[in-house]
Structure formats: structure tokens, C-alpha cells
């Protein structure tokens, strides 16, 4: 079928160096595109023979925009097909661009966000800041269904639907949150409890290997030898929990023994150069037994390196919710301990074990003994002399959360002014001034409950819960209702309050603070310059850490890290050293550093530094990094570890826990670095069956895909990018060979490739150089990701002009990342969404 024609030849002036050139767009398609994208064949699932010149049809315009991108990238026509003359190509590019600009201008402002509710992370942060409560252990969203993702983003209005089930959970969360905030109890007395060995255990020996090792020989100390997470935990049964929410100081009197031992370190599976570590955890006994196994309420508050053979007191200050208790575990102790001690017993200690030492159930030895297995075991142990807890710290009473609702000073549960409380609370909850009709509605709701016999405090909580389940609270973006549409009734500077919320959820994932709301109230968010002042202030605030966490999770798909955990047999170190949160932390600190210091966005592609602690540096083979704290590390010369592509977080996210896939990793680069995602694979293409015997490499297996015509065009772009990352295994360790199931080297890694545009590379370092040569593509991709996250919606046809304006201004300002974030926040597309 011939392409439809709705216009004659188009005359286009390309540039001062190229004369006026006659171009017929549909003839261009017929000559250079239809053979691959026509009636008989649709490479990449794209068909252009039915395309018209009607750019007012959004679907048609999207197709032309895709053609424009391919022409600009040099991907169309393919290099093995006849190429148009340069003047002809430029004329086509110029014509499509001018038509798109015309349509963008006509559609500007038509496709804005209409509905966008808070996601779980935003809800939790908003409740924290609104009610001024601590959410370290308390999570009001714990029972919420998971938020849907769309292209990695969890804050897009299109996917954030509101179901009846979720509304029920909102009601429950509101009630629990208000219970946490309101406190009419008397000021709690401080406690100072000290737990001695006899408070922990009365076990004086182990005669056989068990899953735990906890011994109190003479009441002076307790020795803990096991590192199993699902085993016994150091806890005083007599302590039933702290008396109130607040900060407590926990002290541990301890030393480490046995790090230098006579055993084979391979059997113990511990790094002898690493200090023994105690992990302090706070947990809720009402959720699960605190002294054994993990508990859903567990929260780690500190990991303490314990000095060898040197008794010291270690002190930690941490928030604890009412009823929580402190426990201690041997963080890096040997595990599985029973199997470990069994092997050591067979090799070293058969002379002290009774005949029933292999029993899994016996509680006493069959023979009388004077020396037990636990007496002669010389492996690593934490020796705990005591644990102490003191608190809570109370600066004011009632707590700040209570006073924020009821006002300063003492109050009584039956004596308060509901209208005053609604007047204080609702404007902050709705993130704008309260309409008189709204205030009256909530006060009347309270009065009806009281008239029905409901007690004052219960009626007040129900009224505040109604506010917390209102669309005005639950939605960041939504249409105005009838009341707000009335100009006379609408709050002053309504649009600026909406902008304040949009900006706050962009940079803090939470509600605006008083400073931002007051700026909206004064009309000081009307210009880009005024918004810039607030943006810079907010980026300096510690709450901007949420931006680093949530945006990197979305852009880089780090929210998928851990969804396919690495195999515990092949990658034991990943689990033993708890590398997953460390991997994320490297990427987040790297991101924050580039943002805070306005470093060039090029450093996301390649840099000469990263952020590591001892474990992650060891994982990367980088020396002279000590301690658990993350630090900026200058990378060795010729290191490939600079930039995001070699971060273990990215490399693990793009693996399946068992093996690597150049296809998955290549697609990741196309989607998140170059912003040119490939088409979905045809439904009739068989997936690769990996040869687990190592007989062939993945490179050899992918050859058959490039022999399938419908696959070749996309795999020509995907595979080379992924090959460059084959030098890294499924948990991001550098490698030179593939290995079989027994860990033996098989084939040598080949990380070379050739881009679809023809440029070759030998390894990741050379690929990064080529990517930096396409920095305009990366800048566009990053800008689109930022704007998507900031607006809470997919970008639409009318956003192209906003993106281009940001890119132009960003280049003028030097290419810094903070500049880019500021330009997004101050863009007309963001401010007037």
C-alpha cells in the first residue's frame, strides 16, 4: 500500500550552508523506510506506510517523532541500506521538527496531571511531618497493598489507583497514626535497667553442637558464639518493654575473644582480619518472641565492632516505641553454627563429647562429664558482661505531636475546642488554607458524633481521621471541586499552594514545610526566580535525602534490587556481608555528591571516584579502605569502577541471581542512559536456553537471534552494550572468565563490541568514552526521567518543548546536575502543570 498523501511537496530551508530544498516526506518514507516498515514487513513492530501528515492526530505525531529520533541517531535507514543525501536528511529533520513544534505549542497545557495520590513512601513521610511523630519503627503503611510501578516509577498518577481495600487501609492508618500522636498519659518516669548474665540465660554448658551457642558459666558474663539469624538472641526475658516512645541510651559492656583461633578459617567461614561485631536491634515483643528468630518489627539500630580482649562499654542512642525491647546478636558470627561446630568437633574435640553428641534432641549427656564442648571451644565469641538501657529523654510533655494538635501546655481528654483543632490541623493536612465551608463541615461532623453519645476524644479522632482520608489529603494533584472553582471561595494563591505541594513531593517526598506554605501564602512562588530560592533551600535540607533514594530507585530501577536474590550457594558473600543495602548506599551517596556539588552529569557515565566502605571496597578489589562507614574513594588508575554502569547495585539489579544477560543489561543502558528503549520482542521468538555446562558463551547463543530478521535490528543495538558489562558477574564482581557450576573457569570473557552506528570498543572503559560522545542523548534521557518524577506522570506530546528548553538552558549553565534539577523545578512545564 502506498503511503497516504495529504500535502504536496514541502519546501524547507535547512541551514545557511544548504540551499532551499524540496522534500516530499511521504516520498522519503517510500524510498528509505517502507521496505522495512510497510505492509509486508514491520521491523521493530513499526509500520509507516499508512502514516499521514496530520500532526494534529497524536498517534500520527508520535510516529513522526519516533522517525525524527531515529534520523537524529543515525539509526534510520540502517547502515546496510541506501542512504539519503545529507541535504535530504537534514530537510526531513527540519520539517518534522517544525511540525512537532507547531503541535507542541498548540497542545501546551492540555495534558496535565489530573489525579495523583500519595504513594506509600510519600504517605508515610507526610504523616510523619504532619503529626510530628517518629516513624523509625512505626509504619502506618505496613498493611497497604504495594504501589504499582510504571517504567520503574512508583509515583505516577496513572498507576496510583484508589481501591475500596486501600481506602479501608487509609482509615486504619489514620486511626493508628492519631493514636501515636495523641498522648494524655502522665509524664512517664525514666528507667535505668541493667541486665546481667543471669537475666539472659541459665545455660552453663553445651555438650553437643546446636544451632546456637550461648553460655553463662559462672554469672560473670555470657559468651555468644553463633551468627545464625534465626537462632537464639541475647535478650532479658524479665524486661517487658520501654514505658513510652522516645530516645533511649543503650550500653553494652563487652569484649571480643577467639578472633585468633586454632581452627581452619575455611570451616568457620569468617574473615580473620575483620573485628567481631555486635548488632543491636529493637523489637516489639507483641509481634513475635524477641529472644529467637527474626521478628517483623525488628529494626537494627547499630552494628558495633568489638575490641579483641579489651573490655569496654559501647553506647548507642536510639528511638524506641513504647513496649519495644533491645536485643543483641553476633552480627558476623559463624553460620550455620551447628554444622560448623560439628565439623570442628570431628576434627578437634572428639575427646570431650559424650556418646550421644550427635543427637539432635538430647538435653543431657549420656555420660558424666567435667569438661564440656563449650569449655574447650576456642572459636570467635562475643563476651557480654551486661546490657543497660536508660530513658526516655523527655524535653517536653505532652510530646510535640500532641501539642501540635491541642496547643501548648497541659490538656485533658474531655476539654478541648474541636473547631480550633480542626482549624490548626486541616490546613496543614490539605496543604492550603481551609475554606470556611470545609471547616464548618468537619465541626458539624464532630457535633453529630457528640449528639449521638460518642465520647469527645473518640469523636475528635473520628473527625481527624475524616480529614486524613479526604481527597484533599490523599492526593498531590487533583481537579478543583465545585467549591474551589468558585473564585470568591477559593484560597488566595491557589495555584501557588498546588505548586508548593508539587515542589515538596518532588524534592522531599513529603508535604511542604511552614516556610514553603508561607511563601505560597504571600504569593512568592509566582516566578521562576522565587521558585529557585525555595528549591535551593529545600535541596540543602536533610529531607532531600528522600529525593536521592526515591529518584535513584525509579530512574535506575534500584527498587528491583533484591527481587531476584543471588543464589546463596554461588554468592554466599553477598548474603554473609549483607551487600544489598551497601550497594544501594554507594549509588545514593554518589548521586548526592554529584547533586550537592553541582558536578557534571557526565560523571554519572564515568568518574575517577566512588563511595565505598570496607566490605564494598573488598568486593571491588580496592585496597586501603577501612571501616563500615562510607567514604569517598579515589579510584586506582585504569579502574573501570567509575560511573553508574559499574556500580554493583546496577549490575546486580540487571542479573537474575544466577547468571548475567547482555540483553537485560543492554536494554537497561538503552532505557536509562540513552533514553532509546527498544521495541518489545516479537511474541513468536523463542527465549534463549542458557547452556549451564559452559559449552557456549552467551555471545555465541545470541548469534541466533541476529539471524532472525525481526530480531536483528534491535539486537544490533542491545547486545554490544550488554557485552561490555559481561566483565562483571551477577553481583558485580569483576571477572575474566565464565565459570561452571563447580566454580571452575571455562571461557574467557569477551567484553568487546560495536555500536549500531559502527564505532568499536574493547571494554567498558572504551564504551564509556563512546557514551560520553553521546552526552546529549544522556542529558535528554536524564531530563525526561527527572521531569517524569517531578510531575508524577508520564511525559506527553506537549512536554517535548519543556524538555528541549531545559536542555538548552542546562548546556548554557555548564552541565551541572544541581543546575538540571533547578531547571526542572523552575521550568514553565513544572510550575504550570
Amino acid at each position: 500500500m502506498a503511503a497516504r498523501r495529504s500535502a504536496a511537496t514541502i519546501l524547507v530551508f535547512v541551514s545557511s550552508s544548504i540551499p532551499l530544498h524540496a522534500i516530499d516526506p511521504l516520498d522519503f518514507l517510500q524510498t528509505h523506510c517502507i521496505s522495512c516498515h510497510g505492509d509486508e514487513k514491520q521491523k521493530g513492530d513499526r509500520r509507516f506506510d499508512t502514516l499521514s501528515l496530520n500532526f494534529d492526530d497524536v498517534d500520527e505525531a508520535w510516529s513522526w517523532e519516533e522517525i525524527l529520533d531515529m534520523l537524529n541517531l543515525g539509526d534510520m535507514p540502517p547502515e546496510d541500506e541506501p542512504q539519503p543525501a545529507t541535504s535530504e536528511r537534514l530537510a526531513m529533520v527540519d520539517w518534522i521538527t517544525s511540525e512537532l513544534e507547531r503541535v507542541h505549542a498548540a497542545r501546551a497545557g492540555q495534558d496535565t496531571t489530573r489525579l495523583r495520590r500519595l504513594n506509600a513512601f510519600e504517605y508515610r513521610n507526610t504523616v510523619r511531618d504532619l503529626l510530628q511523630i517518629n516513624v523509625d519503627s512505626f509504619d502506618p503503611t505496613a498493611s497497604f497493598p504495594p504501589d504499582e510501578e510504571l517504567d520503574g516509577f512508583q509515583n505516577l498518577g496513572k498507576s496510583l489507583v484508589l481501591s475500596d481495600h486501600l481506602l479501608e487501609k487509609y482509615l486504619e492508618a489514620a486511626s493508628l497514626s492519631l493514636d501515636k500522636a495523641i498522648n494524655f498519659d502522665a509524664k512517664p518516669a525514666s528507667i535505668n535497667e541493667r541486665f546481667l548474665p543471669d537475666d539472659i540465660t541459665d545455660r552453663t554448658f553445651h555438650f553437643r553442637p546446636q544451632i546456637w551457642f550461648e553460655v553463662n558459666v559462672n554469672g560473670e558474663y555470657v559468651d555468644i558464639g553463633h551468627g545464625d539469624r534465626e537462632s537464639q538472641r541475647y535478650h532479658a526475658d524479665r524486661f517487658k518493654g520501654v514505658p513510652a516512645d522516645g530516645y533511649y541510651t543503650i550500653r553494652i559492656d563487652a569484649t571480643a575473644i577467639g578472633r585468633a583461633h586454632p581452627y581452619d578459617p575455611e570451616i568457620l567461614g569468617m574473615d580473620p582480619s575483620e573485628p567481631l561485631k555486635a548488632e543491636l536491634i529493637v523489637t516489639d515483643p507483641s509481634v513475635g518472641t524477641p529472644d529467637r528468630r527474626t521478628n517483623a518489627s525488628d529494626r537494627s539500630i547499630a552494628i558495633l565492632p568489638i575490641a579483641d580482649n579489651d573490655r569496654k562499654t559501647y553506647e548507642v542512642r536510639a528511638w524506641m516505641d513504647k513496649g519495644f525491647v533491645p536485643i543483641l546478636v553476633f552480627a558476623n558470627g559463624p553460620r550455620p553454627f551447628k554444622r560448623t561446630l560439628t565439623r570442628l568437633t570431628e576434627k578437634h574435640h572428639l575427646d570431650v563429647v559424650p556418646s550421644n553428641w550427635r543427637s539432635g534432641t538430647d538435653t543431657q549427656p549420656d555420660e558424666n562429664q567435667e569438661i564440656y564442648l563449650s569449655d574447650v571451644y576456642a572459636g570467635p565469641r562475643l563476651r557480654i558482661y551486661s546490657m543497660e538501657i536508660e530513658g526516655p529523654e523527655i524535653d517536653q510533655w505532652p510530646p510535640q505531636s500532641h501539642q501540635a494538635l491541642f496547643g501548648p501546655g497541659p490538656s485533658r481528654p474531655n476539654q478541648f475546642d474541636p473547631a480550633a483543632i480542626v482549624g490548626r490541623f486541616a490546613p496543614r493536612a490539605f496543604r492550603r488554607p481551609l475554606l470556611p465551608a470545609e471547616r464548618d463541615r468537619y465541626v458539624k461532623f464532630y457535633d453529630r458524633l457528640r449528639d449521638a453519645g460518642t465520647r469527645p476524644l473518640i469523636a475528635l479522632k473520628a473527625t481527624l481521621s475524616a480529614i486524613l482520608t479526604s481527597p484533599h489529603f490523599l492526593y498531590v494533584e487533583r481537579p478543583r471541586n465545585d467549591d474551589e472553582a468558585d473564585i470568591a471561595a477559593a484560597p488566595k494563591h491557589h495555584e501557588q499552594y498546588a505548586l508548593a505541594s508539587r515542589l515538596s513531593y518532588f524534592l522531599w517526598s513529603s508535604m511542604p514545610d511552614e516556610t514553603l506554605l508561607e511563601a505560597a501564602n504571600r504569593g512568592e512562588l509566582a516566578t521562576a526566580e522565587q521558585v529557585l530560592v525555595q528549591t535551593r533551600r529545600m535541596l540543602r535540607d536533610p529531607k532531600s535525602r528522600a529525593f536521592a533514594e526515591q529518584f535513584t530507585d525509579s530512574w535506575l530501577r534500584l527498587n528491583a534490587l533484591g527481587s531476584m536474590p543471588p543464589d546463596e550457594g554461588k554468592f554466599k558473600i553477598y548474603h554473609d556481608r549483607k551487600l544489598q543495602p551497601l550497594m544501594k548506599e554507594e549509588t545514593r551517596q554518589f548521586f548526592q555528591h554529584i547533586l550537592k556539588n553541582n558536578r557534571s552529569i557526565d560523571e554519572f557515565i564515568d568518574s575517577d571516584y566512588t563511595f565505598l566502605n570496607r566490605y564494598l571496597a573488598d568486593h571491588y578489589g580496592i585496597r586501603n579502605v577501612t571501616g563500615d562507614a562510607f567514604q569517598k574513594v579515589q579510584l586506582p588508575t585504569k579502574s573501570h569502577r567509575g560511573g553508574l554502569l559499574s556500580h554493583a547495585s546496577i549490575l546486580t539489579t540487571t542479573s537474575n541471581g544466577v547468571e548475567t544477560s547482555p540483553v537485560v543489561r543492554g536494554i537497561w543502558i538503552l532505557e536509562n542512559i540513552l533514553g532509546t528503549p527498544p521495541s518489545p520482542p516479537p511474541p513468536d521468538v523463542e527465549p534463549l536456553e542458557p547452556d549451564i555446562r559452559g559449552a557456549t558463551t552467551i555471545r555465541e547463543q545470541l548469534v541466533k537471534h541476529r539471524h532472525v530478521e525481526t530480531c536483528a535490528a534491535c539486537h544490533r543495538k542491545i547486545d554490544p552494550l550488554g557485552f561490555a558489562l559481561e566483565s562483571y558477574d551477577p553481583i558485580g564482581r569483576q571477572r575474566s572468565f565464565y565459570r561452571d557450576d563447580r566454580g571452575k573457569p571455562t571461557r574467557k570473557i569477551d567484553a568487546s563490541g560495536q555500536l549500531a552506528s559502527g564505532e568499536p570498543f574493547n571494554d567498558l572503559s572504551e564504551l564509556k568514552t563512546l557514551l560520553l560522545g553521546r552526552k546529549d542523548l544522556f542529558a535528554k534521557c536524564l531530563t525526561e526521567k527527572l521531569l517524569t518524577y517531578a510531575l508524577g506522570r508520564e511525559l506527553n506530546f506537549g512536554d517535548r518543548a519543556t524538555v528541549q528548553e531545559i536542555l538548552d538552558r542546562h548546556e548554557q549553565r555548564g552541565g551541572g546536575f544541581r543546575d538540571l534539577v533547578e531547571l526542572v523545578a523552575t521550568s514553565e512545564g513544572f510550575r504550570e502543570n
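The CA atoms of residues 606 and 769 lie 8 Å apart. The chain has a mean pLDDT of 89.
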